[in-house]
Amino acid sequence: MSKQENLARKPEPVSAPMQANRRADKASASATVDDSNDVSVMAAQSTIMMVDDEPIILETLQMFLEDAGYDNFITTTEPKKALNMVVLKKPDVVLLDVMMPEITGLDILKQMRSKEALKHIPAIILTSATDPETKLQALELGATDFLAKPVDPSELALRLRNTLAAKAYQDRLLYYDGLTGLPNRRLFTRRLNDALVRAKHVAQACAILHIDLDRFKQINDTLGQNFGDALLKAVSARLIDCVRHSDLVGRPGNEEEETELSRFGGDEFTLFIPNVDRLEHATLVARRILKAMAEPFRVNARELVITASIGIAVCPTDGDSVDTLLKHAAIAVSHAKERGRNTYQYYAKELNTRSIERLTLENHLRKALENRELFLAFQPKTEVRTGRIIGAEALLRWKHPKLGLIPPDEFIPLAEEMDLIVPFGEWAIYAVCTLSKRWQSQIDPVCVSVNVSSRQFHKSDRLMLTVRNALETTGLKGKYLGLELTESILMENPDEIVRTLKTIKDMGVKISIDDFGTGYSSFSNLRTFPLDELKIDRSFLNDIPDNTDDAAIVGAIIAMAHGLGMGVVAEGIEKQEQLDFLRDRDCDEYQGYLSSKPVIASEFLTLVAKNMKKLAD
Ligand code: C2E
Ligand code: MG
Ligand code: MG
After folding, report:
1. Nearest CA residue ID for atom 4, ligand 1
2. Which domain, by its residues, includes 66?
3. What is the rounded radius of gyration, in angstroms, for the C-alpha atoms of the chain?
4. Is 289 inside any structural domain?
5. What is the DSSP secondary structure assignment for residue 3, as one 8-state letter?
6. Is the domain of 390 the same as that of 418?
7. pLDDT in tens, 524-536
8. What does the pLDDT read at residue 257?
9. What is the largest CA-CA distance in the chain?
10. What DSSP string describes 280-300?
């Protein structure tokens, strides 16, 4: 063997214990380190790097090790090149001679330990047994073990075996997810990086699928983390099954070409498909995953359905680096969620622009309250029988100094998602109580209602406290405040809801169910709750009186609500015929453009004053 470097026999050695594990993965998702403890397998798989300026020593060591079953070697007699070779080849263990010209083995060790990617590679120092000082120094620098020179073959084999077994175990902890046994984010990104380099060489397109479970947090929150963990295990088993059958994308028999599944973190999984010469390959896999997920899961004697959203980024079209591809797959998945979940979405540049816009809006929205950009608009509630304005609904508005007025259907869902709706809603309650109390010196008292998001309603203690404090600090009587709740709360645990509603009602506050008819509450469960008013959703009123079905439904809702002692408000009334119909059916109040669009506080006062004057004339 020459004095020059003698590189690996295998063209591209990947960390061998990991390769062993990779094979074990294929057989079982929960492969253990025992597989790689099989001495002969481990020896055959491991790549050993040796650095010594004496070629004869390298040759002797290699001979000993070949006898012990090892056959992947990287050797060099040029210590200055060693570090670079470690970076490139990532061996499983490095044997370092200490005394070498120009740069010592300890220098190399020190450099290895200072690099994140090389930190964990074990290094065995070859030193004379009579040199305790060097040993101490090497230990401090992070040497894994020592070998006394001249090297004894059985001692060498033993040390090496122990070191490699320890590394395999450490790799397991470092690179695999403890719950599912799948490769973790660290290993996935590392392998992805290697795969992208290979793909570039052969000019091959590949794809990353980012799989995110829908509403998993809700499951974790309601059914507990143990249940969540068990579900994640079941999901991962199903994904492994899906991927195993993705022979259409992997080239059978070629290890390096196979798909790679990982648990990326939490409820996110990533899948790498190495060869997508036709885009449909990725589509087929995505569809197969969605189909597999659609089957109900049985976990801890409970059956449940969970869906997933999938974002797909293709290399090189959507990027050729690990970071870009992962980022783009994540953007695509959030778009899939926006589109209603349980679907897949390819990354597209426009998505990036949109996600940046959304991110900007989110950042602005976060500051909207402290920057005093929120205000309220008021829409009068008019008595059908008399035409008198007897109340108002307060509606949240956001005006950003640069972006202008942002439509409520854009920022309110965003505020819901970001959980900002809770502080916004609390602000609205205080603002309404303050204004309403002030108005009472100018107009006859009216009842002003505030919309309460279901998120806010579920923090019931906080809501009750807010309402109580707002009434007390402003001195407003409870009967002049109303809360509009969504119909969905009527389908939840009735005892808890009834308790909250009763407490609010005891303060004199009026409770309405908003957009009634759009949810799935049955008439019978209305009886259970202490409600004052139903607000019939605009969609039922749009086409009355012409649409006889809608007319019948609206008539029935009014009759039923009255039967249960509740008032009825019709929403979105724009035409006189609609109002005439409502008068016929004895509806109590209406809101809508026919009376007025939502207006700012001062205009609302003017409207009320005009209305009073008109009725008095
Ligand atoms: P909502 O509570 O059902 O409010 C009624 C919506 O109907 C308002 O839309 C109002 O402007 C609109 N509207 C009223 N009359 C007519 C009409 O004659 N024709 C038509 N086409 N529309 C009419 P807006 O202001 O865009 O609010 C939308 C939704 O945003 C509200 O629906 C409510 O669910 C939510 N929202 C508004 N303010 C708040 C708030 O302070 N907190 C919470 N949690 N949600 C709010
Ligand atoms: Mg409302
Ligand atoms: Mg409504």
Report:
1. 395
2. 4-175
3. 35
4. yes
5. S
6. yes
7. 778 889 999 999 9
8. 56
9. 116
10. HHHHHHHHHHHHHHHSPEEET
DSSP state of 257: G
Tell me: do 405 and 529 sit in the same domain: yes
Ligand closest to 572 (CA) is 1
Q: Is the CB of 485 under 6 A from ligand 1?
A: no
Cβ of 579 less than 6 Å from ligand 1: no
Report CA-CA distances (Å) from 190 to 30, 194, 476, 545. 20, 6, 63, 66
197 and 163 belong to one structural domain? no
Instruction: Tell me, yes or no, whether 359 lies in a domain.
Output: no
| Nearest ligand 1 atom, CA 397 | 38
pLDDT of residue 521: 66
Q: Is the CB of residue 274 below 6 angstroms from any atom belonging to ligand 1?
A: no
**256 contact partners, CB below 8 Å, separation of at least 6:** 195, 198, 274
Determine if ligand 1 sits within 6 Å of the CB of residue 514. Answer: yes
- Among 365, 374, 429, 451, which is best to mutate for testing ligand 1, by the most ligand atoms less than 8 A from CB? 451
**How many whole angstroms from 533 Cα to the centroid of ligand 1?**
17
- Distance separating alpha carbons of residues 180 and 464, to the nearest angstrom: 43
381 and 293 in a common domain: no
pLDDT in tens, 38-89: 667 777 789 999 999 999 999 999 999 999 999 999 999 999 999 999 998 8
Q: Is the CB of 290 under 6 A from ligand 1?
A: no
Residue 403 pLDDT greater than 60, yes or no: yes
Q: Is the CB of 593 under 6 A from ligand 1?
A: yes
- Measured from the CB, is residue 598 less than 6 Å from ligand 1? yes
Cα(509) to centroid of ligand 2, in Å? 16
| Residue 161 shares a structural domain with residue 204 | no
* 461, 467, 473, 479: CA torsion to nearest 10: -140
User: In angstroms, what is the span from residue 474 Cα to ligand 3's centroid?
Assistant: 26
Distance from the alpha carbon of residue 418 to the mean position of ligand 1, in angstroms: 20
The closest residue, in CA terms, to atom 26 on ligand 1 is 408
Distances (CA, A) of 337 to 212, 222, 323, 360, 483: 9, 21, 21, 19, 31
The percent of residues in the chain predicted with pLDDT above 70, rounded, is: 90
Helix (H) or strand (E) holding 97: strand 93-97
For ligand 1, say whether the CB of 78 is within 6 Å of any of its atoms. no
410 close to ligand 1 (CB < 6 Angstrom): no
Supply 98's token pair.
């200490």
- pLDDT exceeds cutoff 50 at 15: no
Cβ 595 under 6 angstroms from ligand 1: no
User: Where is mean pLDDT largest: 105-119, 270-284, 568-582?
Assistant: 568-582
Helix segments in 245-273, DSSP class H: none
What's 479's DSSP letter? G
End-of-domain residue from the set 347, 367, 391: 347
pLDDT of 40: 72
